[in-house]
Every structure is written in C-alpha cells, then in structure tokens.
Amino acid sequence: MEYHCIDLRKTNQFSDFFLDYIEGKAELRPFYNHLPKIESFQKAIEQKHFSDTHRQVLCETLTAQYSEIELFEEEKLQLQKLADSKTFTVTTGHQMNLYTGPLYFIYKIVSTIRLAEKLREAYPDYHFVPIYWMATEDHDFDEINYFKLDGKKYQWKTNQSGAVGNFELDASFKEFAKTVPFAADVFKDAYGSSKTLKEAVRKYVHELFGRRGLLIVDAQEASFKSLFKEVMRDDLFSHTPHREAVLKTESLESLGYGGQIFPREINFFYLDEGVRERIEQQGDEYVVLNTELRFSRSKIEQLIEEHPERFSPNVVLRPLYQETILPNLAYLGGPSETVYWLQLKGVFDHFKVPVPVLLPRNFALVLEPLFEKKLEQLDWQVEDIFQDFDEWKKSFVAKHASIDVSLENERTTLATLYEEKGKEAKNLEKSLEQSFEAAKVRSLKILNQMSRKLRKAEERRQHISLERARAILDYAAPGGTPQERVVNMMQFYLADDEFLEKLYKAFDPLDYSMIVIEL
Fold it and tell me: Are 95 and 143 in contact (CB under 8 A)?
C-alpha cells in the first residue's frame, strides 16, 4: 500500500470557511478556544473541569449500555479508566447509516482512534478514550436508510417514526436484508441478533473497533438528560441559546462566512415512543408540532424534572450536551460540521462550558489497482484526479490533436486581411469599411464553427484516453460527489479484511490533507 497527501485547497472540495479555520485565519480566532494542533491539548486539559458526579453517571450508564455485549479486554480497560479524573475523551458523532453507509463514517472513527493514540504519546500523564457518539435520537430516516455499493442503492423502507435508534428490525428489515446476501459477517451477525437499529449499530461498531479501545455512547438516557436540566429550562423559558447563537452567526456573516446551522427560539424536540417533533412556544403554551400535545409552563417544568429523557436537543444544543456528559477534549467532524461549532461559542460561554479542540476528520480517496494503471496510461499524478474534466479535456485534446483545432493562425490571418482591405476600400467609399468589418465577423463565425467540428472529430479520435480520464474522475467522485461521501466500505473490506488496518497506517488526524491510498 502507498499513500499520498494532497493539499486540501488543491482538491476543490472544501469551503473557504473550513480552510480558513484549519489554517488559523486571525479573523476566526474569537469564535473558538483552541487552534487545531497537538499543542493545544495542554490548555484544553487545564480548562476541562469535569465533576465527579458527572463522571460517575457516565461510568454507570456506559457500563449498563454494554451489559449485553461480551467486551474485549481493551473496552473493559477503557471503562475502568473512565473513572479516573486523569482520563479524558475525544469524540466523533454520526448518524446510524445502514451497514455504515458512506466511507466517511469509517474515516471519522479511525481518525478519532488515531487521535487518542497520538495524545497518549504526547501527554503520557493522562489517558484518552476515543468515543463514537451514536445519533440514536435522530429522526431523519431518509438520510440513513440506504447504502451504495458498486453503483447500486440498497434501501430499507419502513413506516416507523420517531427516533431512528428505536426502530425495530421487523419483517420489513428482514426482507431488505435478503437483498444484501453478500454483506460481511460482522453486519449479518449484528443485524441478525438485534431487535433495534441502535442495538445492531452498537454491535457492529463494537466488533470493528472495540479492540482499538473505542467506546460507544448512546445519549438517549434519562441519567444523561438529568445533567442537562439547567440548559433545558434556559432554552425553553429564556431562549438564551438562540440569542447567543444568532449573535455569533451574525458576526461570522459580517466577515463573509455563511451560517451552517439555523438556531431556533426553542432548540429541543419532544421525544417519546414513535415521536420526535419540535417544541414551539405559542402564547403561554408549549406545543409539540404535528401532535395534539400542549403544555402549560408549569406542566413542562414538571416534565423537565420528572422526565428529562423526553427532551432531545437539536443541532444547536447537541454539542453542549456532549460536552456536559463527557470529559471531552476534542471533537472530530466533517468540514461543515467542524465549523458550525464556531456559531456556538456564545452558547458555550453562557453556560461556562469550554469549547473543545475542533478537528477535521481525515479525508481520503481509495484507489484500486485498475485505476492506478489508468493513471499511468494518462501520465497523471495523483493530484490530477481532482482537476475539472472539461478543463483538462480542452487542453488535452488541443495538445494531442493531429492539426491545430483552434484555427488561431487562420483567425488572425483572416481578420488582418479584412481589416487591411477595409481600410483600402474606405478610400473608394466610406461605407465599404463597415461592409468588410461585417464580412470579417461572419467569416470568423464560420471559422469558429469549423474549429468546433475539428475539436469534436479529435475528441472522437482520442475517445479512449478521454473515457479513461472520465472513468477515473467518476470513480473518485461518483456523480460529482467525493467517493468518501458515496461508496460503502464493503467495496474494499469484502476483498481485503486488512482494509481498516491500512486506514490506521495512513491516517494522521493532525495532518490536514487529502490522503490518496493506493491499495
């Protein structure tokens, strides 16, 4: 295996907002606590004050969540270490895509594990546990109910509603599973032995990453939500998170950076069996949209106290919730995910919770041997994979054409001829110069048409090279979307059970490059 690191700006896949953040642009410094560097973690450790009470809740809840799973020794050690005040977490989060969904689900977790390993080396007096925050409360089922492999979409359809983590793997799922008989055993075992989606995801993530010490957090617990009551009351009754997030968003927009998330006055959903719907204040009442549920202020105060698990934070408050229940130092996310935390700096400051070190996950493109050969045939370097096809085609066809398809010399000669003769004719009759100018324009249009025909003919002659290039670019970005956001891990994992190990070797969570991996 070989791998190459490409500057992210050269890939044309990332916003200026994200690139300016990782490059440490001065204008963005007021919106976060720490630069995304290994040296920042000493200060992050000093700032993180995680109470013994919260740590005890975390340890007890995680132990209960893992009670039905036979733990690897590495996981047992991590659970024990979490009780120690010198243990911190580094976290990534993601939706529960079927069969892991697109590759970047895997990349997030591998990046987080590698970060924990690097921190243990850099700060040996402390211990660092990689965490996968399982988005069990998410209700956007259409975003996760499929995966793509070899250009084909495999999709589970069900009428269930509410938090997707609670979806039952019922008869409809069993029928869907029959359409993927090729699935790796780790997935067959996980889905086949589970009653709910979150149970299955926990099992396969445990099997794939547990030996590396990854722990999985399901935040849909009354014990965790009890630690978040203060925020629930503030958000519902005072709307402070909305005000603070709007202020920071407006400040970013004044610098030319668009907001990634959109705060609401109330940033909680009502969560119950089959229901996850937004809460809105209408007059003196709190209404759960798309239901008949309505609460007075006193009733909703009572609900917070007695059933905090019924309140599910949206994207504005999920980061704060994470930092409340974990002794967390870093969050690793995608490009948009990383920078939306910058809109939340005021929310964190209001609740006196430090913003963690914000790091992008690793970005990668995996090349199979067939496409490496295609690169050689085109005499491409790996960075050429990220160029625009139409721009490349234009220069390639012209360079390898059997004749000059641009007809540039002919244009110049023709234009000069008409201009000179027009000046001569002007001496006979003034209007003739305009006639020659009009004739020049018509003639140049004809030459343009002939140039296009010549180019098309050359493209047909060179079609093998052009199709080879298109195949590479489509492989790297199917349908114009980067490979890591489309292709499922089984495209590589089924043929090579060492695929994850190769990612561990190639990934460095503190090197912000596009990693091109040649298998």
Answer: yes
